[in-house]
Amino acid sequence: MKTRTFTKLVILFTFICLTKGVNAQTMGDCDWLNLNLSEIKYRLEEPVRYRMTADYFNRTIDGHFTDKTRVMGDCTIGLPEGRVRWNDCSLETLPDENADFTKGEPFPYMENFTYVPGYQMSTAAAFEGWPENSFHAKNLVWDMLAFDAFGPVYLERLKLNEYLVPTEINTEIPLAGQGTFENRNSTIRWIGVTEWKGIPCVLIEYRQMDGKVETSIPGMDMKGRSHYWGYIWISLETRLIEHAEMTEDVVMNIRFEGQQGQWFNTLREIRLDKMDPR
What is this structure's pTM? Predict the structure, then answer.
């Protein structure tokens, strides 16, 4: 899930760090049918930590289960100069569909990985020193950028129950020198106001259909089609994401070196949760 609004995120995160506007509301006194989303002001008085959990369910093209993987990591936003930082990132793969995930193996190269969000995070230079086959870890970074791009970035342009076509998102994005992802047929829609853990939120629906993905790493080439969709809960009080979800379905042909291509299906289920301060 990768978007070209990365450049806007640099401005967005810098603005978050410098702004302390207050627009506290409750569900009872919010006239949400006449809500002007541009009036929701950023309010970030201290760094905020999120936990991302991404589950990958891998199957053959006819639905036979092969394995599943859980990737987790904590992302802290609101650091000086608009930086974000990743910690406690891990991966676990299990061959049993019914087995419970436990504690995965850590990504040592992601511990304290810090950067300013922006389009440069789609380049190979952004991940200098990372292993060749580190797409699970890179997806943590790219999925975090995607949630921001589909949520806070477009908030002012949304109207209740009307689809917005984000033309900046519908484009081809480099995958850090290992391929490309082309977003197609993307839409965003404000579908109402609700609560998440007692916090009044704008609820955003987004989707992307028929995306084109191509990757190449030593020993493997892959071409595929991606659909992804989900929801984002954005606080009426702070304009920060309180919670987000994404489902992605990828059908792909993978060709390993010296072999004919084989068809596979991967279903990804992703959650982003705002964590309590430590």
Answer: 0.87
Per-residue pLDDT of the chain (278 residues; tens, 9 = 90+): 444 433 333 333 333 332 333 333 445 556 666 788 888 888 888 999 999 999 999 999 999 999 999 999 999 999 999 999 999 999 999 999 999 999 899 999 999 999 999 989 999 999 999 998 899 999 999 999 999 999 999 999 999 999 999 999 999 999 999 999 999 999 999 999 999 999 999 999 999 999 999 999 889 999 999 999 999 999 999 999 999 999 999 999 999 988 999 999 999 999 999 998 66
- How far out from the chain centre does Cα 26 lie? 28
Report DSSP letters for 199-263, one per residue: EEEEEEEEEEEEEEEEEEETTEEEEEEEEEEEEEEEETTT--EEEEEEEEEEEEEEEETTS--EE
Tokens coding 199: 């916090």
Cα separation, 59 vs 220, in Å, equals 18
Can you list the domains of the chain with their CATH numbers?
A: 6-274 (2.30.230)
